From TrEMBL:
<protein>
    <recommendedName>
        <fullName>Alginate lyase 2 domain-containing protein</fullName>
    </recommendedName>
</protein>
<feature type="signal peptide">
    <location>
        <begin position="1"/>
        <end position="26"/>
    </location>
</feature>
<dbReference type="InterPro" id="IPR013320">
    <property type="entry name" value="ConA-like_dom_sf"/>
</dbReference>
<dbReference type="InterPro" id="IPR014895">
    <property type="entry name" value="Alginate_lyase_2"/>
</dbReference>
<keyword id="KW-0732">Signal</keyword>
<feature type="domain" description="Alginate lyase 2">
    <location>
        <begin position="40"/>
        <end position="213"/>
    </location>
</feature>
<dbReference type="Pfam" id="PF08787">
    <property type="entry name" value="Alginate_lyase2"/>
</dbReference>
Amino acid sequence: MASRSFQWIAVCLLAVLLASPPPARAQDPTAGFTAVSLSASNFMLQKPYNMPASSRYSFNGTVRQMWIAPSDDPYSPQSDTKPRTEMRMTGYDYSSGVWQFEGLVYVPSGSSGMSIMQVFGGDATATTLMLHVYGGALWYYNQQLIEDGIYDRWLRVNVVHDVGASRLTVFVDGQLKLTFPGRGGDTHFFKFGVYMQRDASARMESRWRNIRILKKNN
């Protein structure tokens, strides 16, 4: 009787496994793209104007660490924007073609209420994409969840912008997470770091490495 029970359990487990969909396979979002050449001159730091860079930014040759506090000043005395410590990628502003941003990002526990990556440029809004962090989750602006449980682990983030098709795609660790329409705009560029949004924590921080900009092959 016991052997039959074990056989029945084994059959049931096998049926469950066969009925379960296989896990999604990771993709390579960079297939068909070529990385452009980047040097130190392509990384332009924007930080509170009245602070030295070392107060809000560090770079050890591999990891770029950026952080802000809600009370920080904007990046210029004339700006009325919220606090930020961001890297504005220069030299590869674009208005056509298919472009891609890639980077590994780490958000420490407790950092919340911030944008960590942008595709700048839009018609009615300043940006076409912002990736926000709220309570350990990655969001498309504050509108749609992309990935939960992101604290204290490295994530590979790929953002593809097809200007002609007015379409953007977000991948996390090779998994397609979101596709959405663009927001117009004549010129675009990529930014990453920390830019305060709503319900900000006392310290907002992100760390980045392996930054690449890629362009789709013709």
